[in-house]
Design brief:
Length: 294
């Protein structure tokens, strides 16, 4: 009976903690000082910030679940073992220890996976803030800059990390904040080589970021065309905060360090968009981005 009481206590305690956290979150929102329709523009890394905040708020719940799973499993097996006799009781103890170890490994792995997602989101958000800061000088030159633009549809939503609108056209920027890894022979750990077709990282090659930047620029161009009734080309840019980019070829996607972006999008010839077009495109993007509420 004592084991059942202990198991019931653990389950009730975890349930009360989760219920209290949910209740507290809801009451905080009910007492906000802003009007219900008050919304801000998205800042750099808004989507990742929201995910990080969500994980942070749920971290205590994940911790107690991870703590409770091994306890409940081991006590359940131990309770069954106490009702066995002879050698079967010994087998039950062995099984209980194995179940405890397995459930403990499972719980720790799940908790570490949550912490890993949290650190990855935090890193990505910081990288997008670096890019956002690098784009600030463009505003003085007549450009409009939007961050974390919601895109896609309900079935396949995604976001455009940054969109620049100005006299030289529209640019869709995809940010990749990559941790540095062990470099292969002949590669520097802080450099990415772009030959116009493939990205060569210190540890290997791929096209993932390039293809993603192309798809997102195409989506934005199609969306603007359907909305405004005329085709406005969108140029894709892929940027890597903290990395040096060695370009050995020209491709459909411009691969740049964030500090290189202002010079790359600066107007060098006749304007592609006039003031009226810049304002029209900007108003459509602002309507999508103004959804940040408390």
């Amino acid at each position: 009976m004592s084991w059942l009481i202990l198991i019931a206590y653990v389950v009730i305690f975890i349930g009360l903690v989760i219920a209290a956290a949910i209740y507290q979150r809801r009451t905080r929102k009910d007492r906000r000082p802003f009007p219900d329709n008050f919304k801000l523009l998205r800042a750099p890394g808004e989507t990742l910030r929201r995910r990080t905040t969500q994980l942070s708020e749920n971290l205590a719940m994940y911790f107690f679940i991870a703590l409770g799973i091994p306890v409940v499993v081991s006590f359940a097996f131990l309770w069954v073992t106490t009702h066995l006799e002879g050698r079967f009781q010994l087998y039950g103890l062995v099984i209980t220890v194995v179940a405890l170890l397995l459930s403990l490994v499972f719980a720790i792995r799940q908790l570490l996976a949550v912490l890993n997602r949290w650190t990855n989101h935090e890193l990505g958000c910081f990288g997008e803030r670096i890019v956002g800061e690098a784009l600030e000088p463009l505003k003085a030159a007549g450009f409009r800059v939007f961050h974390d633009v919601p895109a896609g549809d309900d079935k396949a939503p995604f976001n455009l990390d940054h969109v620049i609108v100005g006299p030289s056209g529209v640019f869709a920027i995809e940010t990749k904040t990559r941790r540095k890894g062990r470099a292969r022979s002949g590669f520097a750990e802080h450099e990415i080589i772009y030959d116009g077709q493939v990205l060569a990282y210190p540890w290997g090659e791929d096209r993932h970021g390039l293809d993603q930047a192309l798809r997102q620029a195409h989506w934005l161009q199609t969306w603007l065309g359907q909305l405004l009734g005329n085709n406005i080309p969108v140029q894709p840019i892929l940027t890597f905060p903290g990395w040096m980019i060695l370009r050995r070829g020209k491709g459909a996607v411009a691969v740049l360090n964030p500090r290189e972006i202002p010079a790359a999008v600066a107007l060098r010839g006749a304007p592609v968009l006039d003031a009226a077009q810049i304002d029209l495109v900007s108003r459509q993007l602002e309507a999508r981005c103004r959804d940040v509420e408390f």
